[in-house]
Design a protein that fits this description.
Length: 268
């Protein structure tokens, strides 16, 4: 498997880290492209990782192309590489927010397998939730994309019209969960713990809650019931948070993010 990753910004670097360090599947070569490649190779401890400033060279040497660029760059990059994209060989995986498969097809004008993906930055530690959708050719190659992203967390195949919602839940969701962990950390400090202790406690509690749901396949309320007792401290705290609008604020935040991404797409 030869993979080219075009664009090594924050997300691209996280994907590159995940691919280079994972053991879930075999990668013969990973080629990274960036305008300024100074010091990039030294960040990866692998003789299978190549760096270049040439997108064309990267595509020619690879079978799977992952686009991890900004939305404003996608047309120029696609126009640059479309001449070396080969039907029947290349699989094009886009992580570009708000750019539909039809937008990509309109530029490359070839029968190329196109898969749209929405990972998050937890891909660097093998814990991404990545949603995938594809054109007809891409559906035949979907197992390849799932193999890559399942080795870097979990993947879920969805209809493309749900991709905006998936972006809010999975990609923006990382920031939302970070803010909740930060708030818990601040509360722990106010209760008397040192900052490092507070962060570790908050983070592990969050991981424990998520692991319980993933491993038991139970509903959150079932797990809440296990730690709430009549007139206890847990239910008192939960009720106070709800009185202050915790669930409502989170849902409103998700909807606001969805409205914003919809506005951005409509303006493109």
């Amino acid at each position: 498997m030869k993979i080219a990753l075009i664009g090594v910004g924050n997300l691209g670097f996280s994907i590159a880290q995940g691919i280079a360090e994972q053991t879930g599947f075999h990668v013969d070569q990973l080629t990274l492209t960036k305008r300024n490649v100074t010091g990039l190779a030294e960040k990866f401890d692998s003789n299978k990782v190549k760096v270049t400033s040439s997108n064309i060279e990267a595509v020619q040497q690879s079978d799977i192309i992952i686009l991890a660029i900004q939305p404003g760059q996608i047309n120029s990059v696609l126009n640059e590489i479309k001449g070396v994209l080969l039907e029947g060989r290349h699989v094009l995986i886009s992580t570009v927010t708000g750019r539909a498969i039809a937008d990509i097809e309109a530029v490359i004008k070839k029968d190329i397998a196109v898969i749209r993906s929405m990972p998050n930055t937890a891909i660097s530690v093998g814990q991404s939730m990545t949603c995938l959708s594809a054109n007809e050719q891409g559906k035949e190659q979907m197992k390849i994309a799932q193999q890559i992203f399942d080795a870097l967390g979990q993947s879920l195949v969805i209809e493309e019209n749900m991709m905006q919602a998936a972006t809010v839940i999975c990609a923006s969701g990382i920031a939302f969960w970070m803010r909740l962990i930060r708030a818990t950390t601040q509360g722990a400090i106010q209760l008397g713990f040192d900052a490092p202790e507070a962060k570790n406690m908050a983070t592990q509690a969050c991981m424990g809650a998520a692991s319980l749901l993933l491993n038991s396949n139970s509903h959150p309320e079932e797990e809440i019931d296990k730690v709430t007792t009549p007139r206890g401290c847990t239910i008192s705290g939960l009720n106070e948070m709800e009185h202050e609008g915790m669930s409502s604020a989170l849902i409103k935040g998700l909807m606001k993010s969805y409205d914003k991404i919809s506005d951005i797409i409509s303006e493109k």
